[in-house]
Amino acid sequence: MLRQLEYLVALARARHFAKAAQACYVSQPALSEGIRKLEDELGIPLVRRGRRFDGFTPEGERVVLWARRILADRDAMQSEIQALRAGLSGRLRIGTVPTASTTVALLTQPFCAANPLATVQVFADLQAEDIVNRLRTYELDAAVTYHSPLVTQDFKFVPLYQERYVLLTQRTGPGAGPAEVSWEEAAHHPLCLLHPMMQGRQVLDAVFETVGVSVTPRVETDSIASLFAQVRAGQWASIVPHAWLHVFGVPAGMRAVPLVRPVRTERIGLVLPGREPVSVIGQALIDVAERAGIAAVLERLPHQAPDDDLPSGVRP
Fold first, then answer.
1. How far apart are alpha carbons 34 and 26 in whole angstroms?
2. Cα 160 to chain center, whole Å?
3. Phi, psi (deg, nearest 5) at residue 260
4. Bigger pLDDT: 310 or 170?
5. What is the pLDDT of residues 157-178, one digit of tens each?
6. What's the rounded Cα separation, in Å, for the pair 212 and 206?
7. Are 193 and 239 spatial neighbours (Cβ–Cβ below 8 Å)?
8. Closest listed residue to residue 100, CA positions, set 161, 168, 52, 178
9. Per residue in 45-58, pLDDT tens?
10. What residues are paired with 191 via a beta bridge?
11. Does the pLDDT of residue 123 top 60, yes or no?
12. Are 53 and 47 in contact (CB under 8 A)?
């Protein structure tokens, strides 16, 4: 039956009989026959059949969910047996929201050091809803994302750090500049921000609403790196997560000023499917996360670039 379940999951992924057969390295008649045998064994129709794939029956949709879970448990069992024999191997698939994508490096490096036979595949810049969907369909082993109602049910959440925010601007003259800036003051800058459908942007909009101001960015993007590039161009300011500064530092010619009044933080954590037992590769990642001390690493902002790195027109 496991092979038949693999056919069913492949069909759910490809939504096309020929492509599903190709993914399973079998002929299309063999795949179709395998799914028919599964239907006969279960006593229910699973697939709406026409001249082409027309979707699953309501019963079929439920069986697809069970099939994904059964196959994921099969893979987890095989990985655990392999780990007992020769050490952890296989591939860790980890996703992340854009605001936390640089933080993943603080997990992958110690994970690979502790498990030299394992490899890692990172899916960066996923939206929070995409992460939940991929975890539910076992296309991801884990993810780094916000703590939210989306991850409070059916998932295991391991806190990593509190995300804080800084105003990123061009340095227009020598000197340290202000030590902090309020959200209301930040609203008066010409801002470039993340796209409004992204959770990282929705966090910022909620803060601006609490202080009674609204913002209309002239530039919106789905990339934190793009925000840095826009500020680098000289016209814009942006609000970015402090964690990004610990990878790239404060770029030359820019200032990163902590945002206050209020000081807003968001919980970022490692999210895994809530099944028990946790997969061996998932548990290995949890063990690394608990030892990594990411919150302490991200506690302080890096030093600002020296005045020597200012553009020539604004050096003292």
1. 10
2. 13
3. -135, 175
4. 170
5. 999 999 999 999 988 766 667 8
6. 10
7. yes
8. 161
9. 999 887 788 899 99
10. 237
11. yes
12. yes
